[in-house]
Design a protein that fits this description.
alpha+beta, 3-stranded antiparallel beta sheet, 3 helices, 3 strands, 16% strand
């Protein structure tokens, strides 16, 4: 079976939508929990930086994890598959109320890992 056929099979088996099938070892809720922990670490480190309200975070990750991260946490809808070990740049901004906003520009997603230059 192809990867997509396996996902469709697992979705039917679990009675969920295909996009909710992450893999056999980790549920969607586990992935989202891991994403929240990552955001907590990033926010904590930015909180410790006095006078710095924005940073770029370079992400190198498994394609499925980073795609879901960008969709769930940065509000980006991606039509293309993200390649494993490609890079994505996430902008983290401290808001006036002390919370953090995570965003990404489309041209900062899925940059091939062998790029000699990353967009600033």
């Amino acid at each position: 079976l192809s990867f997509e056929e396996i996902r469709e099979f697992r979705a039917k088996e679990r009675n969920v939508e295909v996009h909710e099938v992450v893999d056999d070892r980790e549920s969607l809720s586990s992935v989202l929990e891991r994403q929240d922990r990552l955001l907590d670490v990033i926010a904590s480190e930015l909180q410790a930086l006095q006078g710095v309200d924005e940073v770029n975070v370079l992400c190198v990750s498994h394609g499925g994890f980073i795609k879901r991260f960008l969709e769930q946490k940065c509000g980006v809808r991606l039509a293309k598959k993200i390649q494993n070990c490609s890079t994505s740049i996430v902008r983290v901004s401290r808001e006036h109320d002390g919370t953090f906003q995570f965003s990404v520009k489309p041209e900062h997603v899925n940059i091939p890992y062998d790029s000699s230059e990353l967009p600033l």
